[in-house]
């Protein structure tokens, strides 16, 4: 699924310095066999991916088959991974491997006793080749269950260079500048932003970037684990800041009503499609995949990004996250599933999808030359360089009932706030009520 999720980096400078860099060092690491010892076996994999993401992941699975002889079967779960996987386990049809898009869901699966700890081989590779923070977010109570195979850089504001040039503006360095430039873009004939409010997770990402920069990493960490209440003044302040964007009809393509009826792919289309309606769309690095694959845009020329700017003098945020591979105890072929996970931990596996596009890896041994364009290469390097300062998307760390369920919790309440942003304090109270309930269960 297209999403989310946290790193503190500084500015375009780090990205610009990354252009032209070709390697993170290290060479391929063999894993998962190579002598066709898994011939005749089938590994079932469940995940949120569909469309081009599913097709590109299938290339990775095909490479695993070529290496080990094991066949694979991918099942797309849609957004509600926990519900789908839970029903499959209850029905005696559990997949062997699940690509989990949220830390909260991984923790939920582990606490229910559904997961196998990672093998010593997988653990050794992750320890050697990934920043410790990725191991932290893949662990529950000290046991490592998850490998973050696909990462996301969630603090990238994508724009049409032609639209900004027409308006005579350059990528901004602060949030206030971004809104000011947005009005200039609007005056030139296009709305400033396309917002995919039909997908509630895009709104959580807006909030998280503002909150991380405005309130700082310590409060961000506390709110992410509900050690800080959502009624805190820092939350109300961030909602107030976000509300300035939501209520400004000049800035939103089609206004609030249309934003609520626009899903994520359509928000990208409004900027990079054949009939542009807006100059910018905020979301993660995966915007590039949609702009290129669906609308034929050349990344770096027809579509580019600037880092989400700093808010009220804070550090410019970078929200990161990813999809973690886990092995289910109840899978019919969990042993072969663990071999797949050992393979996914290697730069060899990551290089397959990196070449196909629409992908970032947190594996420090992956050669950056594997990525197909300078923009993706720079984004990937910034993620690697962030090292242990990475923080995950806040909603991904929450229980799924609060941070990851369509029509409920944070997703719904921020959609309600987009519809009517006049009462940030009231919205904060509703968020606290929903969070308190979800964290108790």
Automatic annotation (TrEMBL):
<keyword id="KW-0813">Transport</keyword>
<protein>
    <submittedName>
        <fullName>Extracellular solute-binding protein</fullName>
    </submittedName>
</protein>
<dbReference type="InterPro" id="IPR050490">
    <property type="entry name" value="Bact_solute-bd_prot1"/>
</dbReference>
<dbReference type="Pfam" id="PF01547">
    <property type="entry name" value="SBP_bac_1"/>
</dbReference>
<feature type="signal peptide">
    <location>
        <begin position="1"/>
        <end position="23"/>
    </location>
</feature>
<keyword id="KW-0732">Signal</keyword>
<comment type="similarity">
    <text>Belongs to the bacterial solute-binding protein 1 family.</text>
</comment>
<dbReference type="InterPro" id="IPR006059">
    <property type="entry name" value="SBP"/>
</dbReference>
């Amino acid at each position: 699924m297209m999403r989310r999720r946290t790193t503190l980096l500084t500015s375009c400078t780090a990205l610009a310095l990354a252009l032209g860099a070709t390697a993170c060092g290290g060479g391929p690491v063999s894993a998962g066999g190579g002598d066709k010892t898994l011939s005749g076996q089938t590994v079932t994999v469940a995940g949120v991916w569909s469309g081009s993401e599913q097709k590109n992941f299938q290339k990775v699975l095909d490479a695993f088959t070529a290496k080990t002889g094991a066949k694979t079967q991918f099942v797309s779960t849609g957004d509600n991974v926990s519900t789908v996987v839970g029903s499959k386990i209850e029905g005696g049809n559990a997949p062997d491997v699940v690509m989990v898009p949220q830390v909260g869901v991984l923790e939920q699966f582990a606490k229910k006793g559904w997961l196998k700890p990672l093998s010593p081989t997988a653990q050794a590779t992750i320890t050697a080749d990934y920043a410790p923070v990725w191991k932290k977010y893949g662990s529950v109570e000290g046991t490592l269950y998850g490998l973050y195979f696909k990462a996301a850089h969630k603090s990238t504001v994508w724009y049409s260079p032609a639209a900004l040039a027409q308006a005579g503006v350059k990528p901004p360095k602060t949030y206030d500048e971004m809104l000011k430039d947005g009005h200039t873009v609007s005056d030139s004939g296009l709305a400033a932003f396309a917002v995919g409010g039909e997908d509630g997770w895009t709104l959580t990402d807006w909030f998280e970037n503002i909150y991380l920069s405005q309130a700082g990493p310590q409060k961000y960490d506390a709110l992410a684990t509900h050690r800080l209440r959502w009624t805190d003044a820092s939350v109300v302040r961030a909602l107030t800041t976000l509300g300035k964007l939501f209520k400004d009809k000049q800035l939103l393509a089609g206004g609030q009503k249309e934003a609520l009826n626009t899903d994520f792919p359509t928000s990208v289309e409004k900027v990079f499609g054949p009939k542009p309606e807006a100059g910018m769309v905020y979301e993660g690095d995966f915007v590039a995949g949609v702009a290129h694959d669906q609308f034929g845009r050349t990344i770096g020329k027809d579509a580019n990004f600037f880092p989400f700017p700093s808010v009220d003098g804070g550090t410019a945020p970078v929200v990161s996250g990813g999809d973690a591979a886990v092995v289910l105890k109840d899978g019919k072929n969990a042993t072969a599933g663990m071999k797949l996970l050992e393979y996914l931990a290697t730069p060899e596996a990551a290089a397959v999808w990196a070449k196909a596009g629409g992908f970032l890896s947190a594996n420090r041994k992956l050669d950056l030359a594997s990525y197909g364009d300078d923009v993706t290469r720079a984004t990937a390097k910034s993620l690697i360089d962030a090292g242990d300062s990475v923080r995950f998307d806040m909603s991904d760390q929450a229980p799924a009932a609060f941070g990851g369920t369509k029509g409920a919790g944070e997703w719904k309440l921020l959609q309600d706030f987009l519809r009517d942003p006049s009462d940030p304090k009231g919205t904060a109270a509703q968020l606290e009520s929903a969070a308190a309930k979800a964290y108790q269960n």
